[in-house]
């Protein structure tokens, strides 16, 4: 179903946000 796809997308988005925050610091 879509649940798997959504979870993967959410994980990727979170990872990107973490990378951005880490770079800013």
UniProtKB/TrEMBL annotation:
It comes from the Eukaryota. This is Pm-CAD. Gene3D superfamilies: Homeodomain-like.
């Amino acid at each position: 179903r879509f649940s798997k796809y959504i979870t993967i997308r959410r994980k990727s988005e979170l990872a990107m946000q973490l990378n951005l925050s880490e770079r800013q610091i």
